[in-house]
Amino acid sequence: MKLGLLRNPVAGSARARKRWPALLSAFRQAFDTVELAETDAADDTARLARHLALDGADLVVAVGGDGTLGETVDGLLTAGLSSPPHFSFVMQGTGSDFSRNFPAVSPIEAVPAAIAAAPARPLDIGLLTCVDVEGRAYQRHFVNIASFGVSGPTVKAVNGASRGHWLPGSLRFLYHAVREILRYRPDRVRIRLDGEEVYAGGITVVAVANGGWFGGGMKVAPEADTADGRFDVVIVPEKSTFAILRVMHRIYLGSHGADPRILFRRAKLVEVEPLEGAAPALMDCDGEAPGTIPARFEILPQALQLKI
């Protein structure tokens, strides 16, 4: 089996980066052929993933955070192949949320052999169309969660922060989430699921979820299944600042399902636009900030095969 190994060398903690040589050695022991590609710019990942796919990789493993994973699947699915390589990952990032959907393997040096031995399973992928920061139409695939509302400015703040990089990812998200909640003015949106309008008004956050976790450990979609052919859509309506802080705590515990005002729906297609006169809400997509609404989210059932 030919392995394409795609690594973000600046992702994760200093400890994770120190263990990289041992992890790379374990990959070379577990696979016949290993082609290593490392990113050196923010927009490198999808391009390098396409290169690995077109170069004949049977499996592409992303090493990095949720953003690296999302950009890797985007590259695999835009390579134009009728049968893209299988996909896997080693989480080394700020939030590391997608990995929470699956059992962990420890120590990390045991992961390559576990990936090599794992059967492939189907993996749904999301396709986001929105407006980028320049006002142009923008499209990318995502593997975990895309969202808007207070999550948009939170992710933008996390990624742009010049301080606090020494904090664990979950605490970094929590710190910026609280700061952004205190200054958040609810976005006003209209939401359609599979062509039917289900909500119009102010929001705290809306998550379009393939996986269950986002924001450094918030269990926003407890029933999400990465291979059921549908998004779990969680709509948290406009709330007071104190109520937002309280519901955020419940989301970390995954107990927010008891709140009758929070809407839980499933859909294959999600469409959202700002209400008349409202500012466009900022987007979050696999821990990156691609732009704003209006946006369209489409599920691509079993678009990839995951070895995990």
Mean of all residue-level pLDDT scores: 92
Helical residue percent? Answer: 25-40%
What is the beta-strand fraction?
25-35%
Q: Which consecutive residue ranges, at least 5 long each, have pLDDT under 50?
A: none
Instruction: Determine the N-to-C terminus distance.
Output: 16 Å
| Strand segment count | 14
Write a short abstract of this structure.
Helices cover 27% and strands 34% of the residues. It is α+β, with helices and mostly antiparallel strands and 308 residues long. α2 (20-30) packs parallel to α5 (111-117) and α6 (151-160) packs across α7.
What does this structure look like?
The structure is a single chain. 27% of the residues lie in helices and 34% in strands. The relative contact order is 0.17. The protein starts with a strand and ends with a strand. The longest helix is centred in the middle third of the chain and has 15 residues, at 169-183. The protein has helices spanning 14-18, 20-30, 44-54, 66-77, 111-117, 151-160, 169-183, 241-253; strands spanning 2-7, 33-38, 59-64, 86-91, 120-131, 137-142, 145-149, 187-193, 196-209, 231-237, 263-267, 269-274, 283-285, 292-307. It has 308 residues and is an alpha+beta fold. It contains eight helices and 14 strands. α2 (20-30) packs parallel to α5 and α6 packs across α7 (169-183).
Key terms:
single chain, 308 residues, alpha+beta, 10-stranded antiparallel beta sheet, 4-stranded parallel beta sheet, 8 helices, 34% strand, globular
How are the SSEs ordered, and which strands pair?
Blueprint: E1 2-7, H1 14-18, H2 20-30, E2 33-38, H3 44-54, E3 59-64, H4 66-77, E4 86-91, H5 111-117, E5 120-131, E6 137-142, E7 145-149, H6 151-160, H7 169-183, E8 187-193, E9 196-209, E10 231-237, H8 241-253, E11 263-267, E12 269-274, E13 283-285, E14 292-307
Helix pairs in contact: 2-5, 3-4, 6-7
